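Task: complex structure prediction.
Instruction: return structure tokens for all chains below.
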Amino acid sequence: MALMPKRNDSAPSFQEKEKVIALAGNPNVGKSTLFNRLTGMRQHTGNWTGKTVGVAEGHCRLGEQPMTVVDLPGTYSLFAHSEEERVAKEVICSELPDLVAIVCDATCLGRNLILVLQILSVTDRAVVFVNLMDEAKKKGIEIDLDLLSDRLGVPVVGLSARSGKGIDDAVRVMQTASDGVAPLHSDQEPRALAETAEQIAEEVTIKRQERDVRDRTVDRIVTSKLFGFPLMLLLLALIFWITIEGANIPSALLAKGLFWVEDRLMEGMNALGAPWWLSGALVSGVYRTVAWVVSVMLPPMAIFFPLFTILEDLGYLPRIAFNLDRCFCGCNACGKQALTMCMGFGCNAVGVTGCRIIDSKRERLIAMLTNSFVPCNGRFPTLIALISIFFVSAGGFGGSLLSALALAGLILLSVLVTLGCSKLLSCTLLRGEPSSFTLELPPYRPPQVGQVILRSVLDRTVFVLGRAVAVAAPAGLILWILANGKVDGVGILWHLAGWLDPIGSLLGMDGVILLAFLLALPAAEIFLPVLLMAYTSSGSLIEYGGLEELRLILSENGWTALSACCVVIFLLFHFPCSTTLMTIRKESGKLRWAILAAVLPTVIGALLCLIISFVSRLLI
Amino acid sequence: MEVRRLTGEAAMRRRLEDIGLTEGSRVTCLMKSPLGDPKAYRIQGAVIALRDRDAATVFGVPITPSPHDVENGRRGRRWR
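Output:
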């Protein structure tokens, strides 16, 4: 599963007769941006190497002719090192594309030309797009495109995919060029190839000056000994604070609105004379669970996702990987794991897929197995709610600030556990030395704020919410049946919870909580709704109207600070959702890694809860 | 500095050549990460981070500082 629309993992399938154009190029040169421009699709783009790990395909028209455009993962060369580069190479070298459009970065043409020359030596159906012309201009770099075209023997177009400048020219060139071009063939050794590339780049680049003083100054601050780590934590806390502060009121309003609708639905059902079990199952079961999911999840997500996307667009994420690499290296893992962790904040399944950017198989497996230690967006709202209710008594500004800090502390804990586990794995099951590592730090780019908000709300938020609702609806039905189906006069749910109770209390929780964790296996989003449903289905109908009522429900059912603490810990460290597990199974190719990915965090979470409840019982 | 020789194992050498770190190319160290390792280098106009153990396989000679190096207050440095 991925957050992007229409994404395939293997070689894409094509319709007959449609011309196929493959977009190739170094990582982070704007292939996906160009792809979106050409096809009008909304493939997610980000300012860092390795954003596109699969192959995306979309359709557009060149004049009268329908075209299929394929967006390939970025690659530095045709000699594949990592999984995502292998995918790109396979498509380029195959007979599939009618035309390979090689996208270059105008600001570092020399390095880009290495790949261009390599591709030109295997295919004669190619054009070169020099992207980021506006950025190059700002840096005082100008490129003689005609001369470049002359040297390479293929059409060259300069463009700025972000602003859309030059796209029309690009389309025109693709139309004519796909009829055949005569490129420069070079069967050179890699060294000679690189020399040729540099030579050509020097020839065609005019007024080459490094004018990225501002970027370097910013870099020196965000990666400095003094500010590097504090700044990372501060940014994290700031994002959480804005999310918590902003989500409170809309969350309560949404809940009020949705439960008003529930009452009307119930009245409607009764008026129609529906039997109690039907209206119960549909309204109290399906509808209420869905309403809970929406009101608990939507506001924090609609705030968190855009904020995070802005950081991503800006180019800050690779700096995080740069700062943290030493820690991962110490655990014999790869610094790019920090990037996959960041993706895990959005969705662990996406984080696991993103692990393809890690070259070494051993390090990739470590990153996959430990990805779920980072709370995904399905777990964030629950964490935020529990922290606000149980650990921050002060209301208002100070309260939300404290909640944000507590949440940042939890993330710190999850990063530490990730590191510890990576170390553990690399000392036991996945023994080995850290492999070599190269990471590009791209120039900072001003985020397109309007675009970011629109895209992240439309693509990510709606997608994640849609998945949550799709899971919540049947889960609500099952839960209602479990709660209302009676064996020996007691609901089935309570039988199950009763069986789990001993284990639950050992871990500082109760049986219902454990049952909710188990039932939330399809999607962690529904943990809290399942829990509330279970608690409230036994007695009178209580509607969730905000955090205060949530607190009432939970404390009425025997929750203390201890149980909240254990739930928070177990929420951080327990088996990932079934989608993530299936993704791990697919990406690693073996079932046993998926099983390990479920067992490892669960054992760690259980151990931590055991220790916490044991210590607190000793103290009290 | 100017790169003279890549001594790493084949895969690593290949990797470095792909990103433009070839014999005769120029490299400048730009900054260290907070913990000192990895460091970021300017290679062919791009900024690329390398771990010290990988960078140690690259041998080169210092070159006279270009106007850009002076501007940033840094000079090409030598590894090892």
